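re: ur question from the group chat, yeah i did fold both. here u go
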Amino acid sequence: MNAAATFALAPALARVAAPAAAPDGDDEALLEAVRHRRPVLFAQPQRAADGLPGTAWGSEPLGRTDMQTAADRLRRFQPVLQALFPELQASAGQIESPLLPVPAMQRVLGLGAGQGQLFVKADHGLPVAGSIKARGGLHEVLEFAERLARQLGLVTGEDLSPLATPDARRQFGAYQVAVGSTGNLGLSIGVIASALGFRAVVHMSADAKAWKKQRLRWRGVTVVEHEGDYAAAVAAGRAEAARDPRCHFVDDEDSLSLFLGYSAAAFHLRDQLAAAGRVVDAAHPLFVYIPCGVGGAPGGITFGLAHLFGPHVHCFFAEPTASPCFLLALQNQAGQVPSVYEHGLDNRTEADGLAVPRASQRAVQVVRPALGGVFTVADETLFEHLARVCQAEGLRIEPSAAAGFDGPQQLLHSEAGRRYLQRHQLAARLPQATHIVWTTGGLFVPEEEYERFLARGLRRAPDRATLAP
C-alpha cells in the first residue's frame, strides 16, 4: 500500500504556521535574511500603476499581439499533436490543465472565506511533458519545425498535418534540437523534438533527477550529463550547438519563443475563471503564485495575465531559499542580475527545477513593472506542502511544484505582504479575491520517488498531528 493511502486527513485541520516577518523597505535587512536562508517576501516597489509589463525583449518590440501569435501557432499544431500523442485524442491535440477549486487545502493553509477563494492551476498534470514546460518548450520546437517545414516545402498553407508523416520525420532527422536543463524543460524539448523526428540532445546539470534522464533516454533522446549547475549545462549546450549549423538551441536564459509559449496560457485561464464565475476587476483582485527558476515560465505567464487583467492581477514568484535568483535581480535597482553565489548561497535545493543561480535578464526587464513580488521557501516546507495537498485534495506533485502554496501565507501574514495590500488598497477587497497556486510538475514522477517525497513531508508537517493512521 502506498504512503498516501495509509493516512487520512482529520476533520479538524490545523492551520499552517505564519511565515516569519519579512523585511520591507530595508535592502540590507532583506539581503541579510536571504543570505541566512530565512524565508522572505520582497514586495515589488516598482510595480507600474497600470500593472502592464515591459514592451521589449532586448531590441525586439513585445506586446499582446505576440502572445496571440503563439496561441494561434499552438492551435494550428493541434492536429499534428493529436496524431503524435495518443494521450491527446480526447482534447483534440490541445495541451491544457484544469483550474481546480481546493477548499480542503484552503482550510489547511488557514485561508479564511473572508480572504478569498483558493484554486490550483494544475500544470503538474499537463500531458506529454508532465509539467508547465510543456507550454513554452513545445511552442519553441513547434515554431522551429514550422519555419523549417516551410523552407523544405513540407507545408505551404495553414494545414500542418503533413508534419506528422514519415516523410517529415525523415527530413527533420537531418536536424538537431538541443537544450540545457535541470529536468522539466529537457523533458519537454526532448519529447516533442524526438516525436517530430529531430535528433534531440539535452544537456543536464548535476542536480537533475536520475529518473528524468532515464525517461529522456527511453524516448531516444541523447542526454549529456554535466558536473556543474544549470548555468553550466546551458553554457555547454549553447557552445556545442553553435558549432552545428543544423542545430537549433533552445536557450532558456534568452528565448522569446519560450516566453511567448508560456504567455499563451493566460487566454485559457481567463476562460476558466469566467466559467468558474470568478470576476477579475478592481473589486475582485486576482493573486497568482508561481514557482520560479530562471524566470521564463512564470515571466511569460505574468506577461500574459498582465495584458488581460492589467492592475487587477498580482503575480508573485516562489523560489527556494538556496536559489532566490529572481528576487535578487528584482531587488537590485541598478538593473543588474546577480548570482546567488555572490551572496554566499550554494544553489543546492531539492526543488531541482528551481535550482538556478542567475535569473534571465530579459525576463526580469519585461516583468518587473507587472510583478507583485517574490517570496522564498525552505526545502522542508516544500515537502510539507506536497504532503498536505496530497492529503487534502489528492493532488500528486513534485517538490518544485509545491512552492506556490506558501504564497497566501506570505502575502497575508508577513509585514511586507500587509504593506503591499495596503499600498494597492487590496485589504478590503480580499473577501472577493481569487488566489491561484500554479503547480508546475509531477505527473511522471516514479511511484517510488514520490513515496519518498510524501513520507518526508508527512514526517515534517507541523500539522502532522491531524494526519491520523
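okk and heres the other one u asked abt
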Amino acid sequence: MESLWLPLTLLCAFALATSDALAKRALASHNEYLVLWLRLLFALPLLFAALPFVTVPPLSRDFFTASLMALPLEALAALLYVRALRLSPLSLTLPFLALTPVFLLVIPYLLLGERITPVGGAGIILVAAGSYVLNLNEGGKGLLAPLRAIRHEPGSLCMIGVALIYSVTSTLGKKAVTASAPLFFSLCYLPALTLLLTPVALWGGRRELKSMAKSGILRAAALPGLLYGVMFLSHMTAVSLTNVAYMIAVKRTSLLMGVLYGHLLFREPGIRHRLPGALLMVAGVALIATGW
C-alpha cells in the first residue's frame, strides 16, 4: 500500500496543475475571490459522493487540535496567494513556492518526528531548486532577481508567507489524517475551509455577485473545482502513506506541468529556458522515489 504514494502524488500534481490552468483562464474575466471560493465549493460534490463509504473513526485530541490549527492558516495562505498574484509579477512570486519543500526538511521532524534519508533530502533540494529555476522569467534579470525583488515587491513577501504556511498546514494535515482517516478528514476539512472563506469571497466579489448567473463564472469554475476535489483526495491519501516532505516535494511537479499548460493553452513563451529547472525537478523526484 505504501508504494501507492508516488502515483497518487503525481495524480495530485496533475489535478492541481490542470485546475490551476483552468482557474487562471477564469481569472482573466472574473473576480479572483469568487473564483477561489467557487473552486472550493465545486470540489465538495466529489467528496460528498463518497459519504456512503465513510465510517467515523475513533477521534483523538490530535485530530481536533491539528484541524483547528490548520484551518485558519490554510485560509490565510489562500488569501495571501491571491494577494501575491495581484501585487507582483508571477516571475517574482511563484519561485518562492520552492521554499515549501525546504521548510519541510525541518517542520515535520519538529511536529511529527519524521526523519528523511540523505538521498531523499538531496531529492527534495533538487526539486526545490528546480521549481525555483523553472519559474524564473527569461528576460535576463538573473537567478537572484526574485530575491532582489523582495525589498520592493510586496507580492514576494506574501508568497514566502504562503510557502511557510503550506509547510505547516501540510504537516498538521498529516497529523490529523493519521489521527482519523484520509477520506473522513477530507470530508471535514474542505467544507470547513470553504465555509471559513465564504464571508471573504462574498465581500471581495460583491460587485460580481448580482450577475454571477449570467457572467459565466459558475461554468468557468465548475471543472477547476472538480479537479481540485481530485487533488485534495489524492493529497490526503498520499500524505498518509509517506513522509510529508517527500509527498509535497513530488507534488511541486505541478509547477512543471503548469509551465506546459502555460505554453499549450496560453501560448506563454520561454519554455526552452525552463528546461534546466525541469531536469532538476525530474532528477529530484527520481532520487526521492528510489532513495526514500
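fwiw on the second one: Residues 2-291 form one domain. Residues 150 and 157 are 6 Å apart (CA to CA). idk if thats what u expected
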